[in-house]
Amino acid sequence: MESRKSVQNLAQTIHSLLGLKAHFTFGWVQSVCDIIKHLPSEGPLIDWKSANFKTGGSFGKKDDDLDGAISKIKYELAALTAHISQLNIRRRQVLNDFLDLKGNIRVFCRLRPIRVGENFGHFKPVVALDSSNVLLRLSDNKSRSYSFDKVFQAGSSQDDVFFRVEPLIKSALDGYNTCVFAYGQTGTGKTFTMEGTRDFPGVVPRAIKALFKQAVDRNYAFLFTFSMLEIYMGNLKDLLIPQPRKAMNQMPSSLSIQTDPKGGVEIDNLLAIQVSEFNQALRLYRLGCQSRSTASTNSNMNSSRSHSLIRLSITPLNAPESQRETSKIWFVDLGGSERVLKTKAWGRRLEEGKAINLSLSALGDVINALQRKKGHIPYSQQGFGYLEGYSNIINLSLNENFPTADRNSKLTQVLKDSLARVGAFIWTEVSAEERDKKDDAMKNLQQKLKTIEEEHQNVKRSIEKLNEELEKLTLRGSTCSQELNTPHLSVDQLQPNNKSLRNKTKDEPVDHVPQLPRFMRPTICSRRKSGADYKNSEEKHKFISQRRGSLSHRAESVNFPVNGNSLYSSECSKSRNSCLLPLTMKGSADIETECSQEASECDTKVVVFPEQDTSPGSSINQTTHLSLSEGYGKRLKNKYSSEFLRVDNWLHLPKNESSVITPHGGRWVLPIPSPEKKYRSDGRMKDSKLRDEKIDNCVHKTKEMVYHAKLERQADKGFRMSTLEDILHKPQTLLEDSLPKDSRAGSSCPLHTIDGNLVTQTRDLVHVPSIMDSKCVTSFPPNICGHTFYPDREDNGVHLMSMIQAVKGETRCSDGFLSKNIGCCHFFPSDLDSIASSKEESGVSCSSLEQEPHFWPVGAGLGVGDGIKEDLETSSQSWKQGRRPGLQTLRFQIASFMADPNPNGRITSYMKSQEYPQNKGLGFQRLGLEHDFFYGLML
Ligand SMILES: Nc1ncnc2c1ncn2[C@@H]1O[C@H](COP(=O)(O)OP(=O)(O)OP(=O)(O)O)[C@@H](O)[C@H]1O
């Protein structure tokens, strides 16, 4: 009875073990039933030990019944797959024990080669005594030795260093939050160690590479997201968001930190970009590095003036529920500790140095408290003391005279949930006997781990063999038409980024590559955050309010006592991307408070990169999306949601530009995103899936052609919309030529001044990006108020293109961008879209994107629809209140024209001053994007 019950539960058991519920289909269940039919009448249901690992020729020869042989193999496959899951659980447990014993902090010391003529003052260079001890010789003939887990000599290579860091990658993939810091005095080689150079890549690029490599060997598929921020003067800045080029009169608003009751830390509005391969992550990393705040100091020509933090979040996708937690690995290049006397810093450099020292001190306090298992861990309160550096090594010393700062340390708060498992520390003193015991226990665990790994490999190999066998048998059998489509229980197949799948994709002709629109699927993260998993709206609402309510802790802004005038006139730090953000007397308190509040109700943005598809024509697959999971408010229920996605596609153009943008009639236009196809993982669906793909592609192409034909017709009539590519690449004169005379700014649109600025009064409310040449001549479609790209003005602008350039793999994006005559984008108060206001409702911070108002008034009483008027009013009001639309606004506005399949109709309706019915907009219903991904956006 018992065993029959187990048989009945087999399917569910395997389902839950493999975490693939959603993909299992009727065909799969049938095959499991087949397996069950051939189960032995007695004995354990799945006994992996009895599984036949030696598959070579054992089937088919003796067994006359082909079906029987197939079922037997499937049975073994199921057993082995279950066993692999067990092994994974065991491995995690053993590793856990091992890490607990070993202690979670390992401290390495790397000695930097001494430069010719380097002056050490009254200190002498540090000497490495052996592989774990260094000697510091003091001036008065005294010396001190320090122990580390490992000491790297001055001649050590980047490889040597990474070798020691690599085990952490495994921990991160196993679900642990991990953290790698580089800390030390300014100029001692932290950035060189973490970032490295192109020829000598450092820990971060190597670790990212290893992460993707090791993920392939795992039993699960993983979802990786990449984020990068810096903590500059106590402010959190997203390094992946393009920064304004010119100095503004305010400190950029800081991202705010949220802590949930379980201790998890989230940073509001921090971009988390989904990456599916090493190169994507690397490009983003390079982009982030370019934006770091650096400056020349007495100690270092290119000194980091901030802490930079790189975060890779890792979510196992098809792991069992209990193991599906997201883990993160942080790489932190801390700002260098400085001694003011030595660096002779003043003005801004001095303030930066102080901020760095203070936060390092807080970090030291936290680690100290964790190590000593103190009741109170001062994550959010700055303590006394500072880090004092001697040459290449660091000595943590408390200095009671150092001024107390009753401020939050953003650094320790951000890393709070990644520092919490600190166990042993180098300064922990244990007896020799205890140490021996510990060593033995660790050796034991290491041996266990090794055995598990070997067993894991064996089982994997057996599964591969069985699959080959199964394939042969199914091909041979006359009943193969049925069997061919039955999915195999393969470890490889269970992970989308597995080798076999990739080889297959490579080998298949381009036409046959299934274009799975992965980017349209809601990520687990976004579904959870958006509450899309909740069945009805009431439940979802409850979820959201609970969630907001649960964010119990908020970091306050840090207001550094900076005298703007004096600082402004002293040196200025700059990002490597030429970001120049001076402080003012006002500091950032007001602004930050406002932004923090706005940000409070909003979630992390998740930009989703699809898997790289190099096939030409796979434009849809190569697009990129920004999902703004929660908090965009009711207004996103309306027609505009899908436009976000479209513009994000453009913002994140992948490397092969020609495959993204389709030429038509001599012009280059963006493809229209096609709706997601929902596939079953059932192998039986393969053919019909391909067929559907082709049909969909056809429909898509036809739609596109119709759209372009419309553009052509408009052009023939003397007027057409400027496509995005026109705007970016065509000379101004061409654009002008393509428009009727009365549509050009300066002709029909009267010019006047507001606040001393020359502005154009436009007659209608449609927004479109356009180009301004050096004479500030604008070309707009008729009655269209536009965003303006200033090719030769660097002020007040946002480098939208830097993101594109980075994704394309081009470095120095901003300069390239400027040199191509595509300047900066301006945001205007007259935004008609609802995004700005919904952004404000939801609290999306547009911190670094906020621009000085370049006022562009919009004519009143133009006969536009009520909804649009309302949007406009809200938007203008927000602007007046100092809340300005940001990048999202621009995205939307570009999108609203670029994406419109019927721009002609839309423009005509404006021109005739008729009401523009809301329900005829650019809704995703109309674009066929009625998927729950977008449902997530509507919240
Ligand atoms: N191991 C090394 N081998 C060769 N050159 C090195 C090494 N470490 C550091 N350098 C060089 O020393 C200089 C300073 O290094 P780096 O900028 O990495 O210091 P840092 O600790 O990050 O300083 P800061 O805290 O001011 O940012 C750089 O020119 C770097 O190339």
* Rounded mean pLDDT score: 55
- Compute the CA-based radius of gyration: 30 Å
Q: Helix proportion of residues, in percent?
A: 25-40%
How far apart are the first and last residues' alpha carbons, in Å? 49 Å
Low-pLDDT ranges: 41-61, 381-408, 421-429, 480-537, 543-685, 714-872, 878-899, 906-939
Shape: elongated
Cofactors and ligands present? Answer: adenosine-5'-triphosphate
Helix count equals 32
Major beta sheet, specifics? 8 strands, mixed
Structural class: alpha+beta
As a percent range, the share of strand residues is 5-15%
Q: Count the beta strands.
A: 28
Family: Belongs to the TRAFAC class myosin-kinesin ATPase superfamily. Kinesin family.
InterPro entries: Kinesin-like_fam (IPR027640), Kinesin_motor_dom (IPR001752), Kinesin_motor_dom_sf (IPR036961), P-loop_NTPase (IPR027417)
GO molecular function: ATP binding; microtubule binding; microtubule motor activity
Keywords: ATP-binding, Coiled coil, Motor protein, Nucleotide-binding
Describe the structure.
With 939 residues, this protein is α+β, with helices and mostly antiparallel strands. Among the domains are: 277 residues, Kinesin motor domain (Kinesin, 3-Layer(aba) Sandwich); 281 residues, no CATH class. It is 40% helix and 13% strand. It contains 32 helices and 28 strands. The strands form nine sheets. Strands 6, 7, 8, 11, 14, 15, 20 and 21 form an eight-stranded mixed β-sheet that branches. α3 crosses α4, α8 runs antiparallel to α9 and α25 packs across α26. The radius of gyration is 30 Å and the shape is elongated. The C terminus is likely disordered. Bound molecules: adenosine-5'-triphosphate. Adenosine-5'-triphosphate (ATP) binds next to α7 and β13. Keywords: ATP-binding, Coiled coil, Motor protein, Nucleotide-binding. This is Kinesin-like protein KIFC3.
